[in-house]
Amino acid sequence: MELFLDLVFVYAFLSVTDLMAENFRTEGLFQGVLVVLLLWRCWSLYTLLGNVVRLDRGFMRPLIFGVAATILLIGIATPVIFTDRPGGLFGPMIFVVAFLLAQSSALLILTYTVSDRTRRPLLRAWLPFSGGAILLLSGALLPRHLPSDVDKGSVQLALFFAATAVDFIGVRALGTGTWRIVSVPHWAERHRLVMLIALGETIISIGTSRGLIGDPPITWSVIAGSALSLVVVAVLWWRYFDIAGFAAEQALEQRPAATRSRLGRDAHSVLHVVMIVGLVLIALGLKRALSSVEPDTAYRWDLLSTLVLYGGVLVYLLGQVALERRTIRLLGRSPLLGIVLVTALVPIAVRLPAVGAVGLLAAILTSMVLADLTVFRRRHHVLHRQAAQAAVRAATSGVTPKELFLDLVVVYTFIQVTVLMTRHPTGVGVVQALAVLSVLWVAWSLYTQVGNALRSESIPVRLSVLLVVALTLTIGIAIPQAFDVVPDGLPGPLIVVICYIALRMLHLTALLVLSRDRIPRAQLLRAGVPNVAALVLLVFAALASSRPHAPAGLSQLVAGLWLAAIVVDLAGGYLVVRRFWPVTSAKHWTDRYALIILIALGEAVISAGVAVFGRPISWSVIVAVATSMALLATLWWAYFDTDAIVAERVMQDRAGNQRVVLARDAYTYLHLPMIIGLMLLAFGLRRTLDVVSDPSGPARDPLGYALLFAGVVVYLLANQAFWWRIQHEIRWVRATGILLVAILAPATNRLPPLWALTILTAVTAAVIMIDSRRAAELRRRLHEPPPSTILTDARPVNPVR
C-alpha cells in the first residue's frame, strides 16, 4: 500500500522537474524547491503514519487510495501553482486545497489511532500545520486582490516560503515527544525507498529529456549523453546504498528508545530531504543537458544549466556528508573529495558543451568510487563492517536495492511502451508495443531468476547490474522507434535488438557461472538453442525494419519475425526452465512479481497524469482523475487483497520441481498478460483523459475507448488464471464481472468518455467488493500475514483492521 502511494509521488516529483524546466530561471528553481519541501512533508507524515499503524488493513485501504488520488491532483496542479492558466479552475487554490487535504488526513488518522498517552502531545503538531495552512491559503488567494503595481509573484512566493518554514521549524520546535519510531527497519526502509524513487525520477528525466511527442532522431550524442548521465545517477545510488543508508539504520537501532526519535528526525526527516532536493536539481540539469546534445539545440545549455547540475550534486553530497556525520560520527572520505573536485572544476564545466560537462561530472563521481577502493580502502572496509548487519538483512530478506534500481529503469521502459502506442495509435501500433513489452518481460524475468539465485552485493555483481541498467535504458530510449527509422538518426530497430542481445548474453554468462558445478555445460548450451533462434529472428526483423524506404509488404514480414521470435523464446523457456533454475527463496520470488505489478500500476498513474498535464484544470478533469485512481485502486485490490498473500504461502509450501513449475506457470507466464492488461489500460486512460481535458478536440477516441475496456478484461482474466493455477478454483463472481465488463464495452460505446470511464470503474469496483466480501473467511484464515512482502521487517504495531 505504501509503495502504491510512493508511485504516485513519482509523478508528483516529475511534475516539479517539469515546473522548473518550464520556468528555467532562478525564481523557477526556488519555486520548485519549495514544492519539493511541501511534498516531502506530506510524504514524511504518511511514513510516520505507516510506522504506527498498518495501512493495508480495514478502512485504511480506501482512505489511502483517496490520498493517492489527492497526490495525483497535486502533481497535475503543480505547473499552475504559481502561474494560473486561463480556461479552468484556479490552479493555486487547487494545489493548496489538495495539499492541505492530504496532510490533514494523515494528522487526523495519527491523532485518533495512537494511544491516549501520546495523543495529547500529538495534538500540538496541529499548531504548525494550522499556521502553514493559513499562509498557503493566503499565498493562493491574496495575490489576486493586490494592486496591479505590486509584484504578485514575489508576494505569493514569500507566503509559500513562510508556510514551508513554519511547517519545518514548528515540527522541530515541538521536539520528538509527539511521536516515536515503532519499527526501525520500516522507518529506514521507507527512507531508502524514497531515495530510490528520487533516483528513478532522475532516470525517467534522462529518458524523457527530449519529450514524449514527436520522433526526435537517436544519435551517438544522445546515446553517449544518456550513458554518461546514467553513470552520474549510478554513482550517487552507489554512494548512498553502499554505506550511508544502512549505517543510518544501524545507528538508529543502537540508540535507546528515548533518543531514537530525535536521531530519526534529524537523519531521515531532515537530512534526506536535502539529498532529495539535490536529486531533483540533478534530474533537471540532466534533462537540460540531454535536450541540448544536438547542434540545433545546443543553445539551451547555458551557465544556469551547468550550475543547476553541478549544484545539485554538491547539495546531494553535502546532505550525505551530514547524514554520515549525524549517524556514525564520520567526516571525511570520498564525499568530501567529491565536493572539493566538483567545486574546483565548475569553472571548467561552464565552458564545455552539454555532453562534455556531463562527462566531466561522471569522471569526478567515478573517482570517488575509485578512491574508496584504493586510498580510503581500509577505512571503507571498517565502515562496511559497521553497517554489515542492516546491509545483510536487506540483501537476504527481500528485494535488494540493486534490483529496485533496475526496476526503476523498467518503469521508464513501460512509459516508452505507452509512448510507442501513442505515436502509432492504430491496431498495428498496439501489437508492436505489446511485442516489445513481451521481449522486455522475458529479459526482466530472466534477471529475476538470477537475482533469486545470486544474493550478493559484491562489486562485480553491482557492476553487472549497472551494465544491465544501461542496456535497458538504451532500449527504452529506442522503443518508440523500434519498428521504423527516423531520418538523420540511428536505426531504432537495430538499437533495440543489439542491446537486447547483449542483455541475453549477460544472462547466459550468469547462467554458466551459477550452474558451473551443477549442470554440464553441453546441456546448458543445448537449452540455449531456442533462445539463440529467437535472437536470430529478431536480428533479421531489425535488419528488415532498418531499411530506408522499405516496401509496405515488408512490415508484414517484420511482424511475422517478431511473433515467431516471441513464440520460440517463450516456448523454449517453458520447456527448459525447470531443469536449471531452482527457486531458492519463495519470498523473494513473489516480492519481485508483486513489485512489477505495482510498477505497471504506477505507469498507468503516470499516463493519467501526463494526459492532463499542462491543460486547464476543470471539474471534469478532477472527476476523471479521481475515477481513474479508483479504477487502478480496484485492480490493485484484486491482486493484493488475498491473491498475493495466498500465492506466496503456496510457493513456500512447495519444494523442488513443484515450486519451480508453479513459479514458472503462475508468475513468469501468467503475470505477463496481467502486465499487458495494465499497459492497455494505461494507454486507454491516457487517451480518455486527453479527450476529457481538451474540449476543443475530438469528442471520442475509439481506439482508446476500446483498449480501456480491453485492458481491464485482460487483467482480470489473467488474474483469474493466476488464482486457478494457485488454488485450482474459479471465482464465479469475478468471471461474471469479466463478462459484464466485456458486454459494457459495446453498450457504452456512444456515451461521453467520462461517463464510460465512470461506469467501467463502478462495475469493476462492485464486482471486486462483492468477491472480497465472499472471501472474508479466507481473509480470517490468513489472519495476520507474515511481514510485508516488500518492506523488510515492516510490521508496525497497533494495526487498524
Beta-strand share of residues: under 5%
- Number of discrete domains: 4
Estimate the mean pLDDT confidence.
Answer: 84
How many DSSP-defined strands?
0
Low-pLDDT regions: 785-801
The helix content, as a percent range, equals over 70%
Query: What is the radius of gyration computed over CA atoms, rounded to a whole number of angstroms?
Result: 26 Å
Distance between the termini: 14 Å
Largest sheet: none
Q: Helices and strands: which structural class?
A: mainly alpha
Question: What spatial form do the alpha-carbon principal axes imply?
Answer: globular
Described by its quaternary structure, the protein is single chain
Q: Tally the helices.
A: 31
Keywords: Membrane, Transmembrane, Transmembrane helix
Pfam families: LtrA (PF06772)
Protein name: Low temperature requirement protein LtrA
Transmembrane segments: 31-51, 63-83, 89-110, 122-142, 154-173, 193-212, 218-238, 269-286, 298-318, 330-350, 356-376, 404-422, 428-447, 459-483, 495-515, 527-545, 557-581, 593-613, 619-640, 661-683, 703-724, 731-748, 754-772
Explain the layout of strands and helices.
Layout: H1 2-22, H2 26-52, H3 60-77, H4 91-113, H5 116-123, H6 126-141, H7 152-173, H8 184-207, H9 220-254, H10 257-290, H11 303-328, H12 333-349, H13 354-373, H14 377-386, H15 388-397, H16 401-423, H17 427-453, H18 459-478, H19 492-514, H20 521-527, H21 529-545, H22 554-580, H23 586-612, H24 619-640, H25 643-653, H26 656-669, H27 671-693, H28 702-727, H29 732-747, H30 753-774, H31 776-782
Helix pairs in contact: 1-2, 1-3, 1-8, 1-10, 1-23, 2-4, 2-7, 2-8, 2-10, 3-4, 3-23, 3-24, 4-6, 6-7, 8-9, 8-10, 8-16, 9-10, 9-11, 9-13, 9-15, 9-18, 10-11, 10-13, 11-12, 12-13, 16-17, 16-18, 16-23, 16-27, 17-19, 17-22, 17-27, 18-19, 19-21, 21-22, 22-26, 23-24, 23-25, 23-26, ...
